[in-house]
Amino acid sequence: MTLEAESSDITSPRRKRTLSKKSVLISVGVAIAVVVIAVVSALTGGNVTNGKLGSTNELVGQRMKNFSLGGLNGGEIRAPWESGRASVIVFFASYCGPCQGEMPEIAKYIRTNNPSPVEVLGVDATDKRSSAQAMVKKGDVTFPVAFDPKGVVISGIFGFDYVPESVFVNAKGVVTGVHLGAIPKNQLANAIRSLKAT
Question: What CATH number does the domain located at 55-197 have?
Answer without folding.
Answer: 3.40.30.10
